[in-house]
Design brief:
Elements lengths: L6 E3 L4 H9 L4 E3 L5 H10 L3 E4 L13 E3 L5 H11 L18 E4 L10 H6 L3 E4 L5 E3 L2 H15 L2
Parallel strand pairs: 1-2, 1-3, 3-4
Antiparallel strand pairs: 5-6, 6-7
């Protein structure tokens, strides 16, 4: 079962948001977005605010948040998962573009949407029902999985 905590990330954390989604974590990322809207979204949706903005976290109306001090996206990711550990079974369950949960897709349904060699060599596919992107486990995916497992295991 994936944790039910959710996040909203400021504009400076786009790469972090992408990696959190790879880990299966629900993270809202809008660019552009102003501080007032970030706070409003955080409070309305009960999302933990991830930010690099030291002035933003000093505001009285900021709810639960995590100030990200690291510059490198992998260091940022490590900082988040130290405080909010992800569930390994949730890795690669979200669309990295739009944050929607992925659904299994029948191989025959993606035939015209993936390269021919992928269709013939891969058996499992997933689809984002929001943006219609198709996912499969290729070499890039294996690299992401190794990175995620190394980070989670190194907590």
């Amino acid at each position: 079962m994936c944790p039910d905590r959710t996040f909203v990330a400021d504009m400076m954390l786009g790469r972090l948001a992408r990696w959190l989604r790879i880990l299966g974590i629900d993270v809202l990322y809008l660019n552009p977005v102003d501080d007032a809207e970030l706070i409003r979204l955080s409070r309305r949706d009960k999302r933990i605010l991830l930010t690099r903005d030291t002035r933003l976290v000093q505001r009285r109306d900021v709810g639960e948040h995590l100030l990200i001090r690291e510059n490198d996206p992998m260091a940022q990711l490590a900082a988040v998962i130290r405080v909010y550990p992800p569930a390994p079974e949730c890795i690669l369950t979200r669309c990295i573009r739009c944050n929607t949960l992925l659904t299994a897709s029948e191989k025959r349904d993606v035939r015209d949407e993936v390269p021919e060699h992928i269709y013939h060599t891969v058996s499992r596919f997933a689809r984002c029902i929001q943006c219609d992107r198709v996912y499969w486990e290729g070499s890039h995916c294996r690299h992401m999985l190794e990175t995620c497992r190394r980070l989670i295991g190194g907590q």
